[in-house]
UniProtKB/TrEMBL annotation:
<feature type="domain" description="Alcohol dehydrogenase-like C-terminal">
    <location>
        <begin position="175"/>
        <end position="302"/>
    </location>
</feature>
<dbReference type="Pfam" id="PF00107">
    <property type="entry name" value="ADH_zinc_N"/>
</dbReference>
<keyword id="KW-0560">Oxidoreductase</keyword>
<dbReference type="GO" id="GO:0004022">
    <property type="term" value="F:alcohol dehydrogenase (NAD+) activity"/>
</dbReference>
<dbReference type="InterPro" id="IPR050129">
    <property type="entry name" value="Zn_alcohol_dh"/>
</dbReference>
<protein>
    <submittedName>
        <fullName>Alcohol dehydrogenase</fullName>
        <ecNumber>1.1.1.1</ecNumber>
    </submittedName>
</protein>
<dbReference type="InterPro" id="IPR011032">
    <property type="entry name" value="GroES-like_sf"/>
</dbReference>
<dbReference type="InterPro" id="IPR013149">
    <property type="entry name" value="ADH-like_C"/>
</dbReference>
<dbReference type="InterPro" id="IPR036291">
    <property type="entry name" value="NAD(P)-bd_dom_sf"/>
</dbReference>
<dbReference type="InterPro" id="IPR013154">
    <property type="entry name" value="ADH-like_N"/>
</dbReference>
<dbReference type="Pfam" id="PF08240">
    <property type="entry name" value="ADH_N"/>
</dbReference>
<feature type="domain" description="Alcohol dehydrogenase-like N-terminal">
    <location>
        <begin position="25"/>
        <end position="127"/>
    </location>
</feature>
């Protein structure tokens, strides 16, 4: 089969390798579409595995079941499925309290073969837990692939209760920032302000419900947000980028009693300096966000494949797996909102 193997930082080669075997108790999936995620790009372009190469990444996976393990009753050959990358045990204290995103026994998808390949094995644990969802026949594989990137965005806004009348600031107009803008509008937000350093991304973001844009290289984003909110600040501020500077600035964009979410991961070891006196006296709540609970994964997938979510606006480039390096460059440059790769084209 074809697979995009990472041999080191930025060294990704599409090669012919042996097709994996169907795992006991699981199934072998023929990958029909897979999204190219920002975390994939970060992993593919840095020494993410500390020299342990080659490796196949890719976790926004949808496809058709090619082969099932003997005795399997949950799924059959030919089923169209979406596979969420993290399987939750649903038994630990975190899972039973409704926060399976913090599962103590979650499957580690980064240690398994990923989906940048013609085929990917799906384990018994993934099948028996909560990772596999059927895709309706009328839904395209490309649209279904947005279920995974939407899940964390959905969970974030669900957790902080983005809703009717809210003013939302989003820092970072990448694919995730655009998901946040669109979802905030679907949830009833009155005003969405997007902050970004790339003018072309700001222009693209307008199609996702963004009301005001700020290029933070051209004007002070804190002053801009204050001006746009009548001096009050936003109800919720979501920093969806890897910048510690953006995190430090974000607290000054929120109203008194407002909420700030650090959504984008920063470089390991990077430190953010925060004015805790300001946080204290303005009653600000700061959250870190990562992942989604089991039910939020389900709900976000249902939204992604519904007519309410404009998947066609987000997927700007559909490429064969052989052009994965082109997809990386399109995403990093800001020309693409979302790249979807087709391994079996």
């Amino acid at each position: 089969m074809k697979a995009a193997l990472m041999y080191g930082p930025g060294d990704i080669r599409v090669e012919e390798i042996e097709k994996p075997a169907c795992p006991e108790g699981g199934f072998l999936l023929k990958v029909m579409a897979i999204g190219l995620c920002g975390s994939d790009i970060r992993n593919l372009t840095t020494d993410s595995r500390k020299g342990d190469y080659p490796h196949i990444y890719g976790h926004e996976i949808v496809g058709v079941i090619e082969e099932v393990s003997p005795g399997m009753t949950e799924h059959k050959k030919g089923d169209r499925v979406y596979v969420y990358p993290v399987d939750h045990c649903l038994k630990c204290e975190e899972c039973r309290s409704g926060h399976s995103e913090n599962c103590s026994n979650a499957g580690d998808y980064t240690s398994r073969q990923g989906g940048f390949a013609d085929y990917v094995p799906v384990t018994k644990e993934q099948v028996e837990r909560d990772s596999v969802f059927l895709i309706p026949d009328e839904v395209s594989f490309e649209s279904a692939s947005l279920g995974e990137p939407l899940s964390s965005v959905y969970a974030c806004q669900d957790n902080i209760n983005v809703g009717f009348g809210d003013t939302i600031v989003i820092i970072g107009a990448g694919p995730i920032g655009c998901f946040h803008a669109q979802l905030a509008k679907l949830r009833g937000a009155k005003k969405v302000i997007m902050i970004e350093i790339n003018d072309s991304r700001l222009e693209m973001a307008k199609q996702f419900g963004v009301d005001e844009t700020v290029n933070s290289t051209m004007e002070d984003p804190i002053e801009a947000v204050r001006r746009m909110t009548g001096g009050k600040g936003a109800d919720k501020v979501i920093s969806a980028n890897p910048s510690t500077q953006a995190q430090a600035q974000s607290i000054f964009m929120a109203r008194k009693g407002g909420i700030i979410v650090f959504f984008g991961g920063t470089a390991k070891g990077a430190m953010t300096e925060l004015d805790t006196n300001y946080i204290h006296y303005n009653n600000l709540w700061i959250y870190g966000h990562f992942g989604a609970s089991s039910i939020q994964v389900q709900k976000s997938f249902e939204l992604a494949i519904s007519e309410d979510f404009p998947t066609e606006k987000f997927i700007t480039h559909i490429l064969p797996l052989e052009e994965i390096n082109k997809g990386i460059e399109l995403t990093r440059s800001g020309e693409a909102v979302k790249v979807v790769l087709l391994p079996n084209q």
